[in-house]
Write a structure and sequence with these properties.
The complex is a heterodimer of chains A (378) and B (636).
Chain A: H1 11-19, E1 37-40, E2 43-46, H2 56-60, E3 66-67, H3 68-76, E4 90-96, H4 99-104, H5 110-121, E5 126-129, E6 141-143, H6 146-152, H7 164-168, E7 177-181, H8 183-194, E8 206-212, H9 220-230, E9 238-241, E10 248-253, E11 256-261, H10 262-265, H11 271-274, E12 286-290, E13 298-302, H12 305-316, E14 320-323, H13 327-350, E15 359-360, H14 363-371
Parallel strand pairs in A: 3-15, 5-7, 7-8, 8-12
Antiparallel strand pairs in A: 1-2, 4-13, 4-14, 5-6, 9-10, 10-11, 12-13
Chain B: E1 12-16, H1 17-27, E2 32-35, H2 42-50, H3 52-55, E3 58-61, H4 65-77, E4 82-87, H5 88-104, E5 110-116, H6 131-136, E6 140-141, H7 146-163, E7 167-172, H8 173-176, E8 179-183, H9 207-219, H10 221-226, E9 232-234, E10 241-246, H11 248-260, E11 266-271, E12 273-275, H12 279-286, E13 291-295, H13 301-312, H14 314-317, E14 321-323, H15 338-349, H16 360-369, H17 384-399, E15 404-406, E16 424-426, H18 432-440, E17 452-457, H19 458-475, E18 479-485, H20 514-520, E19 524-528, H21 533-545, E20 550-556, H22 560-566, E21 571-575, H23 590-595, E22 600-603, E23 608-611, H24 621-625, E24 631-635
Parallel strand pairs in B: 2-3, 2-4, 4-5, 5-7, 6-7, 10-11, 10-13, 13-14, 15-16, 15-17, 17-18, 18-20, 19-20
Antiparallel strand pairs in B: 1-8, 6-12, 9-11, 21-24, 22-23
């Protein structure tokens, strides 16, 4: 048996086990912590070797040694139990009432409206959102105004290093912070919160986490190269994927609408997404997604007391309106979410075994995810 | 203080070998001196430049060695005496002209001094320049000490005029750069007036008749060399072993014989005129011994030429055993030393001798390592090249397509090592980085997807990269050329060049603007200050993405050593001990572990970085890279 040699849990391991394996989710949790990692065009790049045995880059990454039970315990006070959509206090559909939000929104405008409401109410003093620059490159930005919130609405189906903004600041030092993130980013935030390493980031001031449903995200560089070629270099104004069963990527460019089958862009899905267990951003206070067949509405899951309280207040103050989520939609959501977990486990099996995966999960849960029949769902 | 221009016949002065060569040229009445700097030859023209005005000379730093030789040859064609100096690589550059010049012959005395760098201590290659004398049928002299360096140079001018051929002098580092006593002779007070005789022609064509004429001229050197005082024998009548040597090998061999106390067993045949061989003189002495050992720098030049003569005359000479580089008794790479000469002689004579205890080197190293800080071969504190390579490293990593850097000759060649973060991947001749980029820049059509980057210094650009850049533009090569413009020929000792606005003698010169040249050649040109690290990375990334043709980025920032001479530090830099993250996660000693400017020190006691105020030049670059904003810079 090997003795004496310490297992590296620093940049060296991050490079070997995440960056070189193309497992990086591009969440940004490891960025602006140190000078060794930087992001450019959606890719995290190692600039120099760091020989520390343990580092925050590895500790915060959502793709390194994640003990899911422990993380869920740290956030919810109970382990990883639900195998479909994670811990739920209340599930509903909702939409923003003000046209200001719904006009620019990808669906119901709930996320923008809630962040704005939290800022107005003083629940938070700063939000971290993910606007795109003129080249559609997503970047984490600290926002404190409506204008900036509006500028961040919508999606380009590309993930970006949102969490870098949390590490980087600038912060005045006392702001309470609300973050909107993808499931991988929400997992990274939970790891940051529950990490035993010296923090030196404002993670303890993050009071609100709004998670976005996500089936996959695209890798910026190859996707942009593809669009550039398809559009002959013309600038892209808006991207939208039509709901199933059609699933067409609609690209607005210079007033023209280009329709591209989603299957054509699947090759640009990040490898990291193929092994992701989480569709509904389970480690958030509030998770928000679409509602199939009900355009203009969001599915909303309140997961923590804080999240539930904010939703209730937003509803009482007329910021959002809610309705019960129809049974069919709930069933469908649970099925889709479970299937994402199952696909991830199967992908990991092919990659060398679930036991070697980036997370640990009790065997009985793995078994259930792989075998749970759909009929058994509530 | 230069003492080479004093007219004090009979006086003995302490001179560096290169100064002695310069003095020899002055005593010979040289009028035109030209060179491109290169160690270990640089001080020859550097010294003459300092006395040019008082001595009535034209001294110039030419853009390259070929032009330098052409400048000196023109003086010769006009009846004046001309001197050209270079290092061994330089002769490769000048050789195209030289190997036509031999066919045309020359007028006034023309001497070409080539200082070889055995071991390649400050060179890209290790090369024995003597082969060119054989290649071009040109007479060759090899000084063995400082007095000889002066005398040979002086007599080389006479010889050149006698034969009508340029004469080569081959020095080596230990002759050029060491110092010794030199007895001065008179300086001439007047000289001829230049003129191009209309009846004379210097045409290499037609080659064959001129080749015959060259042989005739060359053959006239043979009887002169047979009588040369630069060749002599020292030792017993019938030595057990005869050492044949030239140049620095003479001193090494003599020291070895003395130390081994074998003066009565070993003779030394010291040759100063080594091509054409003084054959009768050599054969006469070969008869004295049956065992011959060759001690000479770099290649077995004497060894093979003398063996050739021996083969022709072996019936008279009888059986001989030869030892040297060919037999493996003397190493055939690297610089010679007294130790090497001693070992070879001791082994052949079977004499027990230990010049120093076997573990001496190890113990000396151990003792010294406690006194001397461990410093790798690298850039000076505040060197702009460090900042440049830092930005290049980051930009290539971020770009993510495995771009690579083609190197060139100059201080920035240290970019191959840790202080350039190992970025530079090729190094050959002057201008070869850009030339190679011309080739790599055509491989895109075959599927090469990696960005091609070439680096080149300002002086190197004028020397040899301009034709390559023209080629790149003409043939549509696709690459990024980084011109590292530190406004100096720093590696060889800060000689001025066409971009500096100064001549070799300190006069004003028009500035040949790098940017304008590149633009007129049709390249897209941008200029950035490498000390502005963020802007440099951003510009590099943008230019790397640009796939069309040749792009030039000029990284403009004066050499730190030059700046230190005429301006105060830009910034006062200090490390805030409270903010320094040291070895913790978030920094892990980026400044002293990776960036490694010698101006930064790691304090083991406190676990924090500090500034070494004695050597910090105040460039402020470390303040930009410190992740904890602990390094503060304040304008001075």
């Amino acid at each position: 048996m090997e003795t004496g040699e310490k297992v590296n849990r620093g940049l060296k391991a991050l490079e070997e086990r995440v960056l070189k394996q193309d497992l990086c989710a591009g969440c940004g949790a490891c960025l602006s912590l140190c000078p060794y990692l930087r992001s450019w065009k959606g890719r995290v790049v190692k600039l120099d070797d760091c020989n520390l045995e343990e580092g925050r880059c590895f500790g915060y990454c959502p793709r390194t040694d994640v003990d899911l039970n422990k993380v869920y315990e740290g956030i919810f006070g109970k382990g990883y139990e639900e195998i479909e959509v994670g811990p739920v206090r209340k599930i509903m559909m909702a939409r923003a009432k003000e046209p200001l939000w719904t006009k620019k929104a990808q669906t119901g405008g709930v996320v923008s409206a809630l962040i704005d409401f939290a800022l107005q109410e003083g629940v938070i003093q700063a939000g971290i959102l993910t606007p795109r620059d003129q080249d559609l490159l997503p970047q984490g930005r600290i926002v404190t105004s409506r204008k900036k919130i509006l500028g961040s609405a919508g999606s380009t189906y590309v993930s970006g290093p949102t969490l870098e903004a949390l590490n980087k600041g600038p912060w005045k030092g006392r702001e309470r912070i609300g973050i909107v993130g993808l499931p991988c980013q929400v997992l990274a935030l939970a790891r940051m919160k529950t990490s035993g390493l010296e923090k030196r980031t404002p993670i303890d001031r993050v009071d609100l986490v709004i998670g976005l449903f996500c089936t996959w995200a695209l890798d910026y560089k190859p996707f942009m190269a593809f669009l550039h070629e398809r559009l002959d270099g013309r600038p892209v104004k808006k991207l939208h994927i039509t709901p199933p069963p059609e699933r067409i990527l609609e690209v607005t460019s210079r007033g023209e609408l280009h329709r591209i089958p989603v299957d054509d862009i699947r090759p640009f899905i990040r490898s990291s997404c193929r092994v992701c267990l989480d569709m509904t951003a389970e480690l958030s206070d509030i998770s928000v997604g679409t509602v199939e067949g009900r355009e203009g509405w969001n599915t909303v899951i309140a997961r923590t007391a804080m999240g539930q309280d904010l939703l209730r207040r937003a509803k009482d103050r007329g910021v959002i309106e809610t309705r019960p989520l129809p049974k069919n939609n709930l069933n469908h959501l649970m099925e889709a979410s479970l299937l994402k977990k199952r696909r991830a486990l199967n992908a990991l099996k092919e990659k060398g075994g679930i036991e070697k995966a980036y997370f640990t999960l009790p065997a009985n849960l793995i078994k259930r995810i792989l075998s749970e029949p759909r009929e058994a769902m509530p | 203080m230069s003492s080479i221009s004093q007219n004090a016949p009979g006086k003995t002065v302490l001179l560096m070998g290169n100064e002695a060569i310069a003095r020899g040229a002055l005593e010979a009445g040289v009028k035109v001196c030209a060179a491109y700097p290169g160690n270990p030859s640089s001080e020859i023209i550097g010294t003459l430049a300092k006395v040019a005005d008082e001595s009535g000379l034209h001294v110039e730093w030419s853009v390259n060695e070929k032009v330098a030789l052409e400048v000196a040859a023109a003086a010769s064609f006009a009846g004046l005496r001309g001197l050209c100096a270079m290092k061994q690589n330089g002769l490769n550059v000048a050789s195209d002209f030289l190997l036509n010049l031999n066919l045309t012959g020359c007028g006034g005395g023309l001497v070409v001094v080539v200082a070889d760098d055995p071991g390649g201590v400050s060179s890209s290659n290790e090369e024995d320049s003597r082969i060119f004398s054989k290649l071009g049928d040109l007479p060759l002299l090899e000084p063995a000490d400082f007095q000889e360096a002066k005398e040979m140079t002086k007599s080389a001018f006479d010889l050149s005029e006698q034969l009508g051929l340029p004469v080569l002098i081959r020095s080596v580092t230990r002759v050029s750069h060491a110092r010794g006593n030199v007895r001065l002779d008179e300086l001439p007070q007047s000289g001829p007036k230049p003129g191009f005789e209309s009846s004379r022609r210097f045409l290499a064509f037609p080659a064959a008749p001129n080749h015959r004429l060259l042989h005739e001229r060359f053959d006239r050197a043979k009887p002169i060399f047979e009588e040369s005082p630069f060749n002599f024998y020292r030792g017993p009548e019938k030595p057990e072993l005869m050492v044949v040597t030239s140049g620095s090998g003479w001193m090494y061999s003599w020291e070895a014989v003395m130390n081994l106390r074998v003066q009565d067993r070993v003779g030394i045949l010291k040759l100063g005129t080594t091509w054409p061989l003084p054959e009768r003189f050599v054969l006469k002495h070969l008869k004295q011994a049956d065992r011959i050992l060759f001690i000479e720098e770099v290649d077995p030049f004497l060894e093979n030429n003398i063996k050739e003569s021996y083969a022709q005359n072996c019936l008279d000479l009888g059986l001989k055993a030869f030892f040297g580089k060919v037999s493996g008794d003397v190493p055939n790479v690297g610089e010679l030393s007294p130790e090497i000469a001693t070992r070879a002689i001791r082994t052949l004579l079977n004499v027990p001798y230990e010049s120093r205890p076997a573990d001496y080197a190890l113990r000396a190293h151990e003792a010294a390592s406690e006194l001397v800080p461990a410093r790798a071969l690298g850039f000076c504190p505040g060197c702009p090249h460090r900042a440049t390579y830092w930005a290049v490293k980051a930009a290539l990593a971020l770009d993510g397509r495995e771009g690579f850097v083609l190197g060139d000759i100059g201080c920035y060649a240290l970019g191959m090592g840790p202080s350039g973060f190992g970025q530079m991947k090729t190094m050959h001749a002057m201008g070869s980085g850009t030339g190679l980029a011309c080739g790599f820049g055509q491989l895109g059509r075959f599927g090469l997807g990696q960005p091609v980057v070439a680096v080149c210094g300002d002086s190197t650009f004028y020397h040899a990269a301009m034709p390559a850049l023209a080629n790149a533009r003409y043939n549509g090569a696709n690459f990024l050329l980084l011109l590292l413009d530190n406004s100096s020929t720093a590696m060889t000792g800060f000689q001025p060049h066409p971009g500096t606005g100064l001549t070799a003698t300190g006069g004003d010169a028009p500035v040949i603007d790098l940017k304008a040249i590149c633009e007129v050649l049709g390249a897209h040109v941008e200029v950035v200050d490498p000390f502005d690290v963020a802007a440099t990375i951003e510009t590099l990334l943008r230019l790397l993405q640009d796939e069309e043709g040749v792009r030039v980025l000029i990284l403009k920032r004066e050499c730190a050593l030059v700046s230190a001479k005429h301006q105060k530090r830009l910034y006062r830099v200090e490390v805030d001990q409270e903010r320094c993250l040291g070895e913790t996660c978030g920094c892990n000693r980026l400044c002293t572990r990776i960036f490694k400017c010698p101006g930064l020190m790691w304090d083991k006691g406190t676990g924090k970085a500090r500034i070494d105020e004695a050597i910090c030049t105040g460039c402020g670059v470390c303040a930009e890279i410190c992740p904890g904003s602990a390094i503060r810079k304040e304008k001075t």
